[in-house]
Every structure is written in structure tokens, then in C-alpha cells.
Amino acid sequence: MKAWSILLAASCLLNLDARGAELRLGTAAVPINPPPGIGLAGYYHARGNEGVLDDILAKATVLDDGQTRAAIVVCDLISMPKWIVSEARRLAQERTGIPGANIMIGATHTHTAPVLFREWSRDETDGGGEQLSKDYSGTLPKLIVEAVVSANEKLQPVRISVAKETENRLANNRRFWMRDGSVGWNPGKLNAQIVRPAGPIDPEVGVFFAETSGAKPVPVLTFVNYAMHPDTTGGTRISADFPGALSRALALYKGPDMLTMFANGTCGNINHTDVHWAGAQSSPREAARLGTILAAAVFKAYPRLQSLINTGVLRVRSEIVKLPLPPYTPEQLEQARLDVRTARDNTRAGFMKLVRAHRVLDTAAREGNPQEVEMQVIALGQDVAWVAWPGEIFVELGLSVKAGSPFAHTYNVALANGTIGYIPNKSAYPEGNYEVESARVAEGSGEMLVTSALRMLAELHREADASSTPRR
Ligand SMILES: [Zn+2]
What ranges make up the beta strands (E) of 281-342? Predict the structure, then answer.
């Protein structure tokens, strides 16, 4: 038997990469339930919490190709403030040796999670600036690091397989062309003024699966990527929303020891509301319904998983991108100061006033300095890449990156490595409405992030090509 055929046979069993190293992977989850009293996130007013409906978790996956280690963390939280990321990376590097720059930390965007301290003007109105919230937010870096440390301790040889499923009857674009020519935002169920959605959804359900590489494989991880706002559960109890229901459904089939990690895609303008259905669409039951539909897509994907015979080399790259600020006038700043004190979000007009006011105040606080955000890509061989985005990204931008990515399986991980709020695509700016009113960056910023992501993806893929050349 020739040397190369021995190598090939061995790599089929062990997921060897081009250098002959085997891929190891470990997972862990740590509860991050808040103490009673701390409010819930995601709205412009303070909301109490009356206990835990289902656990929220910090979930970590560590990958090791023998030379490079990287970690992907997703927390059941509304967002991931940059200061939490920086502290968690520093501590995780200290405890595990994984370079902080190789760690991606995101949030699912569940709206039934505790309000966090973000160093935003909204901290004063939604409870993020209260001592309880500051204290809780201060515990998160250590809890995230616990998950990374534990996943790192559980590294073991794995076989990787991937699949894509399509689910186009679950998510909806929440912006609509209206009969008067405007673009409506969440215009309400059965609204006769709706003409059609103003943009697409991303129907792709990305599935990345790891199992132990022994004779009797044991499931280790199902990573699921789909773009949709988790604001379904409602009420005043802590919940992971539909990603929690997804995890419970997959555990019924694969067992409780497998980690289901859900990373939200570019869901800035995507939610679950079906405007053609008059039925109630906000409750724990509704979250269970959505999680079950998403789980069904994964169940359909399992039999069609394609094994990555040669997982290849693990590579990480990131760039700081400076995004221009949206313009404002001195009069608008005066008005904003007045509106945050007087406006209330119980009418559409009052809500929009608050949204605009907080955008102007946060923009003014930057004193002309651009928003500095991080774009990061973790790539595995020639087939798989995770792209971290620092906010709530319009779906059009994520679709552009998937369309231009040389990696067949490209996962958009939104609200990762920091969050600056909504990032609409260029054409949404003149259309206006909620997300545009809220955006802390000027028109064209989203496209700058697309350019950055595609540049890094292309570079990493070229390097993967080079490293896969057989050794002589
Ligand atoms: Zn949101």
C-alpha cells in the first residue's frame, strides 16, 4: 500500500487534516440565570422579572486542530457588550492559553434575558444602569470563561459533518411596503394597507455536527444557524425563547449530553410575526412551536449530513472597521435631551421619539469619533467558516456574505464580539422607520462590514487551499 493511500484510509477514520493532525472538539454549558429583581431586556422601559421559566446558558465550543485552538461562545442574552467580550477573552486566554483573538462570543438575542449594562444612554431608562444590572453583567465574563475552560478540558477527537436545510415558512421580514408608498415596520396582523414585504428572509438552516471518532460515535455538538428575532416568549420570566425549545427538542433525539448551540444569523429585520395570521404569536407555547419547526429542519438535515473527510486547518482572522456616525443637528440634540425625559413608549409616536433620542444621544457621546467594530472570521479547512457581526444586521447584508463566501458552509453569527445595535443595509436608509431611526452608524456602514468579511473569507480560503497541498 502506498503511503498516500494509508494516509487517506487513516484520515477517513480520524478526520485528519492535511498535516496529519486530528481535529479535537469540546463543549460545555454554564447557567447564567440572574438573581431575582433584575429587569428584563429588549424594550425601552424597565420590565421586572418573576423568576426563571427555562434556564439561560453560556454555551462554548472549543476547536483544536493540533496547532491552533479557537472557541465559539453563544449566550442566551439580548446582546454582547464589548467590555464583557474583552474581559472574557483576557480571562479565557489566561486560564486556557487560547488566544483571546481566537475567541468569538455572541448572544442569541433572546428578549427574556436580563437587561445588561452597556454604557449606552438607554441604561438610564430600561434598568441597564441599575446596580443589580451592573453586578449581574460583571459576573458574565467569569461565567463565559467557565464554559470555555470546561469545553477546553473536554477536547476529544471528533468527526465533523455538515448540512444545509431550508425553512422558509418560519421567519418573516418585518418591514413592508405599504399602500401609501412608505415602508412599515411590524405594521400589525391582517393590516389591509400592506402591499408586500420590503425585503427577503434568509431561509437557510446551517447545521454543523460533531460526534466522537470512536467505533461507536457519541453526539457531541449540533451547531444551528438561522436568522430570526427571539422575542416570542413574552411575559416576565427568564427564558431562552425558541432557541431553548430547539435545544430541548434535539436532546430528545440525540440525548442530553450533546450540546445544541444556536447562533442567530443576520436577523436585524427578521422576526417570527406572520402578518397574515390573526392568532396569538407571543407566549411560551409560541416559542415551543417555533423551536419545534426549527428542530424539524435539523431533524431533516441529520440523515443528509455530509462528512468532512478532511476538516483541514483552523484559522482565525479579525479586522477593526471604523464606521461613520449618522448625522444630527444641535436642535435634534436639544430635542433628544427633552424626549428621553418626557416621551413614553406606549404609543407608536412616543416610541419612535425615544428611539431617535437615544440614537442622537449615543451618537453625540462619541464626539465625532467613528464607531470602531470588530469583524472576525473563524475558518475550518476549505468548507466551513463562522463570521461574527457586531450588532443586529439586516438580512440583505448576511445574504451578500453567504453569496460571496468561498466557503460552502458560511455561518453568520450576529450580535457577536460587541454590539452597536441595528446595522441596516444602504437601501433601507431612505425608507426609514424603526431600525434606521435606531442605527448608530451612517448609511453604507453595513456594506463596509460585508467588504471586510468577504476580504477575510477570501484570504482564509486561499490559505486553506495552499495548506491542503499534499506533502511530498
Ligand atoms: Zn432586536
Answer: 306-307, 314-323
Share of the chain above pLDDT 70, in %: 94
What is the pLDDT confidence band of residue 223, given thresholds at 50, 70 and 90? very high
The CA distance from 113 to 195, in Å, is 34
- Between the CA of 266 and the centroid of ligand 1 the distance, in Å, is 10
Handedness of CA 243, 297, 302, 400 (dihedral sign): negative
- Alpha-carbon span 288 to 344, nearest angstrom: 32
Q: Report the separation in Å between the CA atom of 109 and the middle of ligand 1, taken as the mean of its atom positions.
A: 7
The CA-based dihedral angle spanning residues 16, 20, 21, 22, taken in that order and rounded to the nearest 10 degrees: 20
CA–centroid distance, 248 to ligand 1, in Å, is: 24
CA of 320 to the centre of ligand 1 (A): 23
Cα 175 to middle of ligand 1, angstroms: 13
Q: Which residues surround ligand 1, an ion (CB under 5 A)?
A: 392
Confidence band, pLDDT 50/70/90 cuts, at residue 118:
confident
On the question of pLDDT at 14 being above 90, the answer is no
Q: How many residues does the chain have?
A: 472
Whether residue 280 is found in the same domain as residue 418 = yes
CA separation (Å) from 296 to 240, 280, 349, 368? Answer: 18, 22, 40, 48
Q: Evaluate the CA torsion angle 167, 222, 383, 147 in order and state its sign.
A: positive
What is the residue range of 234's domain?
3-324+370-467
Do 233 and 144 belong to one domain? yes
133 and 75 in a common domain: yes
Residue 277 sits in the same domain as residue 351: no
Residues 31 and 170 in one domain: yes
Q: What is the predicted pLDDT for the residue at 468?
A: 66
- Answer whether residue 136 is part of any domain: yes
Question: What's the pLDDT tens digit per position in 66-98?
Answer: 999 999 999 999 999 999 999 999 999 999 999
**What's the one-letter identity of residue 65?**
D
Q: CA distances (Å), 338 to each of 120, 123, 166, 328, 348, in order? A: 17, 17, 47, 15, 18
Same domain? For 375 and 357 the reply is no
Instruction: Compute, in angstroms, the gap from residue 78 CA to the centroid of ligand 1.
Output: 8
Residue 100: DSSP 8-state: G
Q: If you measure from the C-alpha of residue 334 to the centroid of ligand 1, how many angstroms do you get, rounded to a whole number? A: 27
Q: Is residue 219 part of a domain?
A: yes
What mean pLDDT value characterizes the chain?
92
Which is it for strands 24-31 and 156-166: parallel, antiparallel or unpaired?
antiparallel
C-alpha cell at 20: 496529519
Q: How far is the CA of 391 from the centre of ligand 1 (A)?
A: 9
Q: pLDDT tens across 164-198, in order?
A: 999 999 999 999 999 999 999 999 999 999 999 99
How far does the centroid of ligand 1 lie from the alpha carbon of residue 268, in Å? Answer: 6
* 188 in a structural domain: yes
